[in-house]
Amino acid sequence: MATTVPSKKKKMAIPAAADIADDAPVLPVDLVYDILLRVPAKPLCRFRAVCPSWRSLLCDPTFIATHAARHPSLLIAVAMENTDTDVQILDMSGNVVRRLKSGQQCLTDDMWTHHGLVFLKGKDGRHHVLDPATGDTSVLPDRPSQAYMYTVGWAAAAGEYKVLIIRDMDLHEEVCMVLSLGDKNHGWRERGSPPAWVGRRGEVAVVRGIAYFLVSGIKCGWDDWIVAFDLELEAWRPASIRGPMEEQDNPIYQSCVNLAEVHGHLVASVHKRSSDICVVELWFLTDPHEPLWSKRYNITLLPTTRDVFESFGMPLQVLKDGRILVWIWKHYHKYRGVPRVYDPETETFTEGAASAGRRAVAGVYTGSLLRTVSALP
Fold this sequence. Notes:
The longest helix has 10 residues, at 61-70. The radius of gyration is 25 Å and the shape is globular. The chain has a 4-stranded antiparallel β-sheet, with no helix packed on it. A 4-stranded antiparallel β-sheet has the order 4-5-6-7, with no helix packed on it. The protein is mainly beta. Helix content is 9%, strand content 42%. Pfam families: F-box, FBA_3. InterPro entries: F-box-assoc_dom_typ3, F-box-assoc_interact_dom, F-box-like_dom_sf, F-box_dom, Gal_Oxase/kelch_b-propeller. Residues 27-67 form the F-box domain.
């Protein structure tokens, strides 16, 4: 009796564009455009290889701008220490959507994301700029000696990035110096001393063209005074800003203040830690001229035990529903960073994936990964 051997299924071959008959049905261009607008950026980058017409469409600046408006990106740039892949771009859940190499192992304590670019300090001591969309990198000019504070901001009126450093001239004088990114002729410009001693504390945030620095040491009994530098005018604002710390907070907890830019606002995160618990208050500066602060979030981290310790990294972004994306350091058997979404209504977290490296530092990346033209000057 004859036996029948089942034949193996053949994989369906995808015809090349040249193999498609002239009378084969083709989707209208407008329909293809509308469909692709609904697709997230990560697969769209791969779709450029489908055919020349798709590549032309997906590289078109008008399409990229329309897609960015429909899919406002909320991505996190994470610097991985002592790895060949220096920077990873994560989504809100902690999944990697892009990996970048800067050519240098990076120091994770020295990293910023600003206006669609990533700035970090390599172990060669020089500062590098990465464009996550195109993968392009550049190296900033060497800093003057005795420069220890460093930040980058976007000056909208001038249409350029400006690098700002604080230089310690001697024990009694600090000087601010500014460099326009891409300006190879004029170099560093001296722009006067801050109205109060900034020192090496390292707390700085840039919001709408203004760089805010925490003052070093205690002024009038409090450790949250802030001085401001206008990147457009390249000048210090004369008046210091009083931070949000309150008198009754100080005796109960060991308190400290950090600065961050969140959704176009300066945010002071006041960390209040006792022996077994950490509470973080997030204060938003609503009026820098008065100044007026508004406490919008009160976040309690997990209790500290012998094997478990958590600390607050930084606020990242306020979501449309009022929840907030934050970065948390997890100290278990290893030191990891993890994104979490905090819901102030339920006072609960939704946790993302922990970073794979020994240490990571995060900042928000708001650019479009579809962009094909480098933003580097």
